Amino acid sequence: MLRGSSLKNTPYIYGISVFTGKDTKVMMNSAAAKYKFSSLEKLMNHAILMIVALQITIATVSGFVGADWIQNNEVKFGYL
């Protein structure tokens, strides 16, 4: 009997277990299928990574430029 099968119309059965384990045909074919990426998904993943990297770069550069500008212009924050 194969894995997951059931008997019908019989109260009991006699059997011997032969060839069990990971090397059997059923167990070797029971592996999950690998996910395949389409070319569009690969392109989108690359584009998203590039956009995130660009945003981080722009935020970092803007932070340094803004801090330098505040130091050079001696801007006082607060109420008048």
Overall helicity = 40-55%
What does the average pLDDT come to?
82
Estimate what percentage of residues fall within beta strands: under 5%
Globally, the shape reads: rod-shaped
Structural class: mainly alpha
- Counting DSSP E segments of at least 2 residues, the number of strands comes to 0
Largest sheet descriptor: none
Number of helices: 2
Q: Would you list the SSEs in sequence order as H and E?
A: HH
Gyration radius, rounded:
32 Å
Distance separating the two termini: 87 Å
Spans with pLDDT under 50 lasting ≥5 residues?
A: none
Secondary structure layout:
Blueprint: H1 25-28, H2 39-73
Describe this structure in words.
There is one protein chain. It is built from two helices and no strands. The protein has 80 residues and is an all-alpha fold. The longest helix is centred in the last third of the chain and has 35 residues, at 39-73. The chain starts with 24 loop residues before the first helix and ends in a 7-residue tail after the last helix.
